[in-house]
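pinning this so it doesn't scroll away 📌
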Amino acid sequence: MFTTYNEALEWIHGRLRLGIKPGLKRMEWMMEKLGHPETKVPTVHIGGTNGKGSTVTFLRSILQAEGYRVGTFTSPYIEHFNERISINGVPIRDEEILALTNVIRPLADELELTELGGPTEFEVITAMSFYYFAHCSDVDVVLYEVGLGGRFDSTNIIQPLASIITNIGLDHTNILGNSYEEIAFEKAGIIKPSTPIFTAVKHPGALNVIEAQASDKNATIFRMNHEFFISGHQSLMNGELFSLSYGNQPMKGLEVGMIGEHQTENASLAVMAAQYLNQATAFKISDNAIRKGLKNAYWPARFEVLSENPTVIIDGAHNDEGITALVKEVSSRFTNKPIHIVFAALKDKKLDGMISQLDLIADKISFVSFDFPRASAAEDLLKISSSQNKLAVDDWKSYLQEEIALLEPNDVLIVTGSLYFISEVKPHLCKILKNDKISL
């Protein structure tokens, strides 16, 4: 039995030693022992390469605006571990994490002695979430974000009301495959028989794979630019404006409070899923709740402006698609402004394309490392860059403090890369900005 939150957290993180072990057998074993809590609450399943967290947030905010209590399971966390299991955007308490860990620990120990082997960190946290939402909370629905891939992801034991696949990119290729089609096949593994699937996938080969899987499962598919369409996009100072049309039900002038044209795609998926829930299930969701939910939705570290004078932005762009979206926004919003980028990444990512894109927009680019087993060394990142104004930094905390103090009003500082890095850097940046009394 653990007696403190820190003991529980240390044990959970200690499971990282087991790495990633794709497969559902261990989850099914634990769920059987727990009386199948994953079947006791309605769910929606959200997968894809980028945009999962934002889509979860848009849908959660819409449902919350209608008065529902909405559980969410997301990863990784940005500011606090407990974020991964939340209700209406509020992380569960430390004492709840402690209690849940004490429920799952005996199962993990028992499972360790079987041929299946012990559960990974992600499997433990997923099992905790299923037990929590079924037995320790009063939620109307839970939105489950896929951790990795889909087909063999720990969350893929649910039978959701609907599934969403945001997009497909070449990420985690060492596990999911080297082509869009191979990765799409893994992502499409969340499609369930006779359960609608909503997708914003644009790559033709990847979309063909998803369509084929939907057909095999007799799952009705709703595709961006086929069954629903985005039009009239305008970038706002603090968000985006767009219209969404599907069938004979256009919704004009939808506003989101998250920055980036790609957020209109994530928002449209949330709207389509909400409309389906409204029309085909017991959930009742008004147009007003949709508009209010989209506008109020907030998800940290997605082109998040921490300071406006000077401009300081953090963005969890951790793969080619994320970097492409970031570069597009920076290029359109900060023309003729000096851009300083601070970048950290995991060494198992495809780094060449990411860094070459950043080189194109950065007047200065700084590479840093951070305390994480898979973190790339700053010097290794530096070697990839072709920038004429680049450097590798040993101590990113001191460096950021010094750089922020030197920023001119017209400068733009962008801290980006691995979400694991962003989770470390955001609270530190906020502290620096608060202490320096920079306008937020």
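📌 and the second one:
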Amino acid sequence: MKGIGLLGRKIGMSRFIDDKGIFTPVTLIKAGPNYVVNVRKEDNGLESVAMGFEVVKEKALNKPKLGALKKAGVPPVRFVKEFRYPGISEQFQVGQEVNVTDVFQDGELVDVIGVSRGRGFAGGVRRWGFAGGPKTHGSRGWHRRIGSIGNRTYPGEVKPGKKMPGQYGNEQVTVRNLKIVKIIPEQNIIAVKGSVPGSKNGFVLVRKAYGLGPQGRSE
């Protein structure tokens, strides 16, 4: 995982009001404290740091994971993820407690990675935004169908990647270049502008933005 970041949970959405009375929709993320579980520096130049988040009871973990955490001198944590970045191994030590202000600051751009809400099996209209069939002039049973999916005699097959009804949601989504509106250091909470994937209390990963998104958005 490229970029320095932290693990956290999505608390929910709120809004901030600036001095001019303008409302800004924000998502609150509790991203700390994190604990450094492992630090690696390979001969090929690869450097990484494994972060742990959300302290739980020891009985909630299996013995191999619990033993590795005890060896690192960190409390039992539910989630462990690795971050890769040049020079990152020199910034952290095994067993260190990392808070929000140690990594992020107000006004910074971040990428947020989470799992989108699962919506089960969905048709083409909901899943892909298809227009559906005619609604009038004697049309019957075609209002939300996707229409023809095949070809003529040649090649006579459904092409791979054809948009079809199927499982919708419950997949990893990355939202890039969200601006940190405010940091609440006492509670390790980050307020980022806009929405992030996942449901309330969902697990998310917040990392420093290292490039513009598909639309070239910078804030």
